[in-house]
Write a structure and sequence with these properties.
heterodimer; A: Aminopeptidase; Alpha-Beta Plaits; 2 domains; 5-stranded mixed sheet; 4-stranded antiparallel sheet; globular; B: mainly alpha
């Protein structure tokens, strides 16, 4: 979902099935390079010594990297346990108390300073180590989805009937990002590296707009660069964008009455909701093809013999351009007003989320791509392979061959060269690496 | 998840040891956001919807 301004998303293996949100960004690496890298640099003769020094510094860095990778192999089981615990907690947006606490205590005991309740959200936090510039952030999410409770078996089997579950791999997301943060902190301390490292515990990624409210509270104000990733069915860094989203809860308030004895005395909140939903269905024909509108009825009344005095519709609308979406949204609001007007009920609209389509970052995606190739993919054991194969058979297209997790997706240039990008793709971002004045 | 964690670490090493990488990231960001301002559509005084997963 979500995604990161100035931040690349290195997508990595999700060993269970994945529900991909449209708002999740995937990134490809553009062939375009920042101008300063393209410029030729003239070295004076006496720079050769410095050249040699730089080469040895590069070797040191490569040594550091391979040592770090080896060290991480020996510690990965612990973070696997962490991920498993969060997967079992399965807490939905803004209710991720145990999941956030687990990550907080992990980071606190590794020496990070935890700032709690960022933006007055009980499950939003930051964990910071170090001082000075640069300030580098790593995103961690941990919310589950309603109704997706699942045992760790390759067929549908809820742990708790109707309960929430991790269908999108946010259990992995938070745990892997914490793993990275702790490892980086230890390296910085050991090598006396200057700068600030900050883990962002970002709740309610699934439609609750956690990052939006953290941005508003200034949590990203001083950060230079933010890194993020999302579980997927292949490993790669690319430059794709996503769909901008607006979401709201539409609440209708009517007058209750006995539906048989005195229906004339009642004003049905459900009528209002249904008129709105029908109007949205008519609207669907007259918006651009690439629009997505989806909704659920989160409250439709309590009993057939009571005229419902309250109803609630939770609706998302998405488009590649936030500007186009603004226009569509105006018309959705009119559909809601029509519902209230026709049913003689009162309407209350509460915006929940507002996120731009992802702004790809060419330089960071290229950097992530380079490092992803150093790390390499995943080789499954025979047991894991068999599990994955059983999972595959539950997919709608069960004939699709198994993909490879061993190779890193080779990434081509951005599907839209910068000059050809529609305005929407150059529009803006969801979270800041360097917030615009409006946010400061 | 280990692939992701390792990739984040190696990228973090690059960003902390090479200021040019951070500058390049910022330059990329500015190029793509040129002419566009971030503006949240959620009213500035609206508190976070902490109960959005509950229905009344």
């Amino acid at each position: 979902m979500y995604s990161v301004l100035g931040g690349p998303q290195a997508r990595a293996l999700q060993p269970t099935f994945t529900v991909r949100e449209q708002t999740d960004a995937s990134w490809s690496v553009s062939g375009r390079r920042p101008q300063q890298q393209a410029r030729g640099v003239r070295y004076p003769l006496d720079m050769r010594t410095l050249g040699l020094f730089l080469v040895s510094a590069a070797f040191l860095c490569a040594d550091d990297k391979s040592a770090l990778l080896q060290k991480m192999d020996s510690q990965s089981a612990h973070y696997g346990d962490l991920s498993r615990k969060i997967w079992e907690f399965a807490e939905v947006g803004y209710q991720e108390n145990r999941s956030a606490d687990l990550l907080k205590s992990e980071l606190r005991s590794a020496g990070f300073t935890v700032a709690d309740r960022v933006a007055a959200i009980p499950t939003a936090f930051t964990a910071t180590w170090g001082s000075g510039r640069p300030v580098i952030g790593i995103m961690g999410e941990y919310d589950a989805l309603p109704g997706l409770s699942q045992e760790d078996v390759p067929e549908r089997k809820p742990r708790v009937e109707g309960g929430p579950g991790h269908g999108c791999g946010h259990n992995l997301l938070g745990a892997a990002s914490a793993f990275a943060a702790v490892t980086l902190k230890q390296w910085m301390q050991e090598k006396k590296i200057a700068g600030t490292l900050r883990f962002y515990g970002t709740p309610a990624e699934e439609g609750g707009g956690g990052k939006l409210y953290m941005i508003r509270a200034g949590a990203f104000k001083d950060v230079d660069t933010v890194l993020s990733w999302h579980p997927s069915d292949s490993n790669g860094a690319d430059l794709k964008s996503s769909l901008a989203i607006l979401s709201a809860k539409f609440r209708f308030y009517g007058k209750p009455a006995h539906a048989a004895m005195a229906p004339d005395a009642g004003r049905s909140a459900l009528d209002g909701l249904m008129i709105m939903a029908n109007s949205v269905e008519f609207l669907r024909e007259h918006v651009p093809d690439s629009t997505r509108i989806h909704y659920v009825v989160t409250n439709g009344g309590s009993a057939p013999n009571i005229v419902p005095d309250y109803s609630e519709l939770f609706l998302y609308a998405r488009h590649t351009s936030m500007q186009v979406l603004d226009g569509i949204w105006e018309r959705i609001l009119k559909c809601a007003q029509a519902g209230a007007l026709a049913s003689d009920t009162r309407l209350e609209t509460k915006l929940i989320d507002s996120a731009y389509n992802t702004l790809p970052n060419d330089a960071l995606s290229a950097l992530v791509d380079k490092n992803l190739h150093i790390v390499g993919g995943v080789t499954y054991t025979a047991e894991e392979q068999a599990f994955a194969d059983k999972l595959r058979k539950t997919l709608p297209d069960a004939t699709r061959p198994m993909g490879s997790q061993e190779k890193i997706q080779s990434v081509g240039p951005c599907p839209w060269p910068l000059s050809a990008l529609p305005p929407s793709y150059r529009e803006s971002q969801r979270t800041p690496g360097n917030p615009p004045p409006a946010l400061a | 998840m280990v692939v992701a964690a390792k990739t984040l670490v190696l990228t973090g090493v690059d960003l902390f040891t090479d200021p040019k990488q951070v500058e390049a990231a910022k330059a990329s960001f500015q190029i793509r956001r040129e002419g566009h301002e971030y503006r949240s559509r959620v009213p500035a005084d609206q508190p976070p919807p902490l109960d959005y997963r509950n229905s009344k």
